[in-house]
Amino acid sequence: MSIVLESSMAMATINEMGAELSSFILKETEVEYIWQGDPTFWGRHSPVLFPFVGRLKRDQYEYEGNIYSMSQHGFARDEMFTVKEYDKTHVVFVLKSTPKMKKQYPFDFTLTLTYHLVDAKLVINYQVETSSNEMYFSIGAHPAFNVPLTSGTDFSNYYFQFNPSKSRLKIPLNGPLIDISCKTLAQTNTAIQIRRELFKEDAQILETSGFNEFSILSDNHEHGVSLAYEDFPYVGFWTPYDKEAPFICIEPWCGVADDIHATGELTEKIGINHLKKGDIFKREFTISIF
Predict the structure, then answer these.
(1) Distance (Å, whole) CA 53 – CA 136
(2) pLDDT tens across 213-236, in order?
(3) Does residue 51 have a cis bond before it (omega within 30 degrees)?
(4) What is the mean pLDDT of the chain?
(5) What percentage of the chain reaches a pLDDT higher than 90?
(6) Terminus-to-terminus CA distance in the chain, angstroms?
(7) If you write DSSP's letter for every residue of 75-102 in order, what string do you get?
(8) Could you give the C-alpha distances from 229 to 9, 126, 170, in angstroms and in order?
(9) What are the CB-based long-range contacts (under 8 Å, 24+) for 84-93?
């Protein structure tokens, strides 16, 4: 089942499976901004990454002396969420731990996702709670945006714009894992033309702090998309280089893939979030289309 939100300017569709945003359309122009999931390139739209972001070393981790296995990006994207609230402009989805999940992830959790449509802006809120004494987790977004957005343009007619305009640290990938020891300074203090070669070594990963806004724009037309947030420590930019896919992902993350030197001990994982019983973890980001 899909939930449709509608404002005077836009329509957004979110699937109960994975609480995944699958469409975001500007009503005046009927332009679709979300990748429609052609499996030839990539069969998803905007999966929720939980309880891990990226790949674990050897696809496993250790907690309190036990070894657990987990595939890339966790299991939430493949679970059916429950609709808790729903009206014309907002919907609340909930996912709770089950005995099956606890075989992979030994914590009792409640994950709540809220989508709120205001004009042509979609505000997405993440909330994590636990009834375990403590919980270690990562969470992130993976929205894919159509590039090109309109007919008569192609991939190379678009560019990234960064706000604030400043340099950020870039974390390289070594296979599916990060290599934190080889961070470099990325030139995000200026607009960057979008080229396939940017993704030759897979995703571009940046460290971020405070407020950040990343936009995909073109000089060929007035349409574009931006994603803004506060206090997500990482962001990834990705498109499958070898397939020349017509989309780009902008991915705010609270967490990151394992480092090549990771011990596998969950409490030592780079970027991991530690939540105590009774505490609530909240993050929010906004997708704007125009």
Answers:
(1) 12
(2) 999 999 999 999 999 999 999 999
(3) yes
(4) 98
(5) 99
(6) 27
(7) SGGGSBPEEEEE-SSEEEEEEE--HHHH
(8) 22, 12, 18
(9) 84/112, 86/3, 88/5, 88/6, 89/5, 89/6, 89/7, 89/116, 89/117, 89/118, 90/5, 90/114, 90/115, 90/116, 90/117, 91/3, 91/5, 91/14, 91/115, 93/14, 93/16, 93/19
Sequence letter at residue 4: V
Give the C-alpha distances (Å, rounded to integers) separating 43 from 13, 88, 144: 16, 28, 11
Give the model's confidence band at 199: pLDDT under 50 very low, under 70 low, under 90 confident, else very high.
very high
Residue type, 133: N
Distance, CA of 103 to CA of 95 (rounded, Å)? 16
Q: Label residue 242 exposed, middle or buried (CB < 10 Å: 0-12, 13-18, 19+).
A: exposed
